[in-house]
Structure to design on (534 residues):
């Protein structure tokens, strides 16, 4: 299949997912029955995924899906109660639409996202639930992206939908007073989907890239529906800054290239510019938050394309602010690296002592890699060797594993050591 | 809970690896084993000889048959295992993903039947 065909197929699939998510959101917002809405539309959605790539996207994709769904439902209406439910859903939808004006289906996907990221829903299942309901990904695809067995992912999704229905989780955008806090959960779920899509072990590249693209699309949707929320802008800026460097993190042979060694020519300038504009816009709203800080960190790294060196003073100040806000051990590790850049590797190592006491980090690869790097730079090759070994054993991405192995092999051996 | 991580991979692909690549993979396995031990989850592990060395034994109607070769001819072969002790399947899957062979072979994660 040619590249053009693949592009057309992707465009058709995207259109089908957009339309599907809108219809699911519209139905579920009225019935609170996410599973019922999925039942009502599943066959029509499958038909769209099969036909649109070949025949092109219909002029009115929402109407096409709805018509096919109603036909399929009436075909099998009396076969089971579930299908009776499905056709009830579709009848309701037809009535709602008839009473609505001609502007098409109101977009309630944001309300659906708020329901999926409601505090009553298990935090770990929020991102998968959004991917399934808003974008129509099946449980098996989501499970493999999140490294969970498909059967248990399926069960957890079903349980979450049952909870939404039975616990009466509301489908609406929260009142202003609660909005910021509740929006955090939505943004967190979108970011979780993005970070899953960002990691790129060999052989899974394409599927994960799609997940990252979908997360960015969800981020754009959130920004378009809540244009005055600085953290929504901050998250989109953060994802775009990261995305701009996707190609540069591998060299021609597919080997991992760390951020400081990336060829800035390979960064996507247009994407960086868009991120900078968003971040600038957010900063004028004077409500700082985690995602704006993280986007600002990426921005301080991105200045290397102009000034030849990242703005490490700014990076350290931003990590200080982020650490005060989150108390996250992961932030503390990155802060220690910034300390090493501004005050020397010895000071960086001292800064790692705090997070080192957190037991969660004993199985966290970046902690060991940072420690190894700083030990090596202070000439403690033997200890660096042990720390690299630990980092290598904890890594899942073969390209990063190979990078760490090269670093370990490059340590001065006992014979050539000056001590 | 204990889980057995069964390492399946293509022996043909393994044989085709350069000595340098093989050295990297072995070093990665060494680091992985160390990480399992230091993480306090390691119970045991072994690497198996190639399937060409396998023998299969069956007893049917009182007759024992001994056949030369593996139980099933497959595209990927069982090459070794790790036995680990972790709280749940999610933790077992996390460790399976870190196994160097996960990048080119397949790791089957099987809970051990508690006796």
């Amino acid at each position: 299949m040619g590249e053009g065909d693949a592009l057309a197929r992707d465009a058709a699939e995207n259109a089908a997912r957009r339309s599907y998510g809108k219809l699911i959101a519209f139905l579920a917002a009225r019935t609170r029955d996410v599973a019922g809405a999925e039942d009502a539309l599943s066959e029509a959605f499958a038909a769209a995924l099969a036909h649109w790539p070949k025949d092109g996207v219909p002029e009115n994709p929402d109407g096409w899906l709805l018509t096919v769904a109603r036909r399929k439902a009436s075909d099998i209406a009396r076969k089971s109660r579930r299908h009776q439910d499905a056709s009830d859903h579709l009848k309701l939808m037809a009535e709602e639409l008839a009473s609505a004006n001609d502007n098409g289906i109101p977009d309630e996907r944001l309300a659906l996202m708020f329901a999926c990221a409601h505090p009553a829903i298990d935090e770990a299942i929020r991102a998968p639930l959004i991917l399934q309901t808003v974008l129509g990904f099946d449980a098996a695809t989501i499970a493999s992206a999140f490294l969970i067995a498909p059967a248990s992912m399926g069960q957890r999704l079903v349980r979450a939908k049952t909870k939404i229905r039975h616990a009466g989780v509301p489908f609406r955008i929260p009142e202003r007073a609660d909005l910021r806090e509740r929006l955090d959960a939505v943004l967190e779920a979108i970011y979780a989907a993005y970070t899953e899509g960002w990691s790129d072990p060999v052989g899974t590249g394409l599927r994960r890239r799609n997940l990252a693209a979908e997360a960015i699309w969800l981020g754009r949707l959130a920004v378009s529906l809540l244009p005055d929320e600085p953290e929504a802008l901050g998250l989109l800026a953060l994802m775009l800054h990261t995305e701009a460097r996707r190609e540069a993190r591998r060299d021609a042979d597919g080997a991992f290239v760390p951020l400081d060694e990336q060829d800035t020519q390979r960064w996507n300038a247009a994407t960086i510019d868009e991120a900078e504009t968003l971040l600038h816009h957010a900063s004028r709203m004077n409500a700082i938050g985690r995602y704006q800080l993280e986007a600002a960190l990426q921005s301080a790294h991105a200045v290397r394309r102009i000034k030849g060196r990242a703005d490490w003073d700014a990076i350290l100040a931003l990590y200080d602010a982020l650490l005060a806000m989150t108390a996250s051990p992961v932030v503390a590790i990155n802060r220690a690296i910034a300390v090493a850049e501004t005050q020397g590797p010895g000071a960086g190592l001292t800064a790692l002592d705090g997070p080192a006491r957190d037991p969660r980090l004993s199985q966290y690869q970046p902690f060991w890699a940072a420690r190894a790097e700083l030990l090596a730079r202070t000439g403690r090759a033997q200890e660096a060797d042990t720390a690299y070994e630990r980092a290598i054993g904890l890594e899942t991405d073969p390209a990063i594993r190979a990078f760490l192995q090269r670093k370990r092999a490059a340590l001065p051996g006992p014979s050539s050591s000056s001590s | 809970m204990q889980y057995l991580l069964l390492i399946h991979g293509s022996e043909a692909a393994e044989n085709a690896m350069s000595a340098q690549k093989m050295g990297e993979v072995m070093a990665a396995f060494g680091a992985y084993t160390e990480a399992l031990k230091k993480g306090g989850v390691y119970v045991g592990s072994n690497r198996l000889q190639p399937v060409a060395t396998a023998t299969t034994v069956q007893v049917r109607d009182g007759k024992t048959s001994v056949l030369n070769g593996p139980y099933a001819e497959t595209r990927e072969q069982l090459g070794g295992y790790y036995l680990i002790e972790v709280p749940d399947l999610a933790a077992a899957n996390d460790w399976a993903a870190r196994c160097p062979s996960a990048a080119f072979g397949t790791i089957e994660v099987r809970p051990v039947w508690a006796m």
Q: What stands out?
A: Chain B touches chain A through 22 residues (CB under 8 Å). Chain B has a mean pLDDT of 93. Chain B is about 30% helix and 35% strand. Helices of chain B lie at 11-15, 19-38, 89-98.
